[in-house]
Design the sequence.
């Protein structure tokens, strides 16, 4: 069985949900590929880590560079989960000198901060975007966009709906919802003003669910 090693800074938030979903689904459906997770820092949130371990998906903490090197050497394919996290930068700057089938999956569009350097697309064997929007990055030259359309792939990132229990209910008024991280690292700094601008809708109600 071939092993895919996912190297990620952590398993929190959306990335944790996506990676645990991929790995657990493969493990429970008897996939021909074994997914293994390598975390570059000690996890602050253990929910998705525990879910992986309960479903016999191995999660390794990179306690040293030797651990990282050994895991990369043992894997059949290495996939870097990239969103410009500072823990990923030293690894990229001093990647172990090992022959590696390398894939990079960008979990940000790269069309605004954190920007996606055009030369980074040429580093791995396959570079994967999360959004179709990345193909037309406004900071790239036309030839860079053409290279991206020709050589890169696009896979939408989703954590699925298995963690959400929802049912339709009759209700009055107008519901305005947000599901996500309660941080300006994720939402627009004028989010509250946006909500305020539509607060005069008859029967409007704001629902905030933090993930």
Sequence:
């Amino acid at each position: 069985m071939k092993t895919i090693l996912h190297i990620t800074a952590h398993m929190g938030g959306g990335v944790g949900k996506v990676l645990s979903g991929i790995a657990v689904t493969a493990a429970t459906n008897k996939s021909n590929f074994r997914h293994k997770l390598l975390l570059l820092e000690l996890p602050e949130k253990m929910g998705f880590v525990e879910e992986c371990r309960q479903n016999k998906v191995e999660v390794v903490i990179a306690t040293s560079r030797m651990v990282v090197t050994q895991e990369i050497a043992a894997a059949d394919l290495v996939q870097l989960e990239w969103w410009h996290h500072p823990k990923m930068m030293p690894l990229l700057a001093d990647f172990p000198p090992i022959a590696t089938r390398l894939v990079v999956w960008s979990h940000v569009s790269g069309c605004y901060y954190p920007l996606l350097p055009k030369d980074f697309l040429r580093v791995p064997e396959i570079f994967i975007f999360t959004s179709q929007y990345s193909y037309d990055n406004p900071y790239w030259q036309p030839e860079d966009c053409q290279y991206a359309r020709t050589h890169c792939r696009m896979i939408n990132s989703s954590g699925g709906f298995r963690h959400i229990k929802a049912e339709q209910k009759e209700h009055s008024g107008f519901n305005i919802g947000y599901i996500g991280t309660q941080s300006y690292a994720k939402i627009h700094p004028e989010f509250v003003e946006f909500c305020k601008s539509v607060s005069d809708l008859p029967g409007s109600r704001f629902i905030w669910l933090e993930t």
In short: The chain has a mean pLDDT of 90.
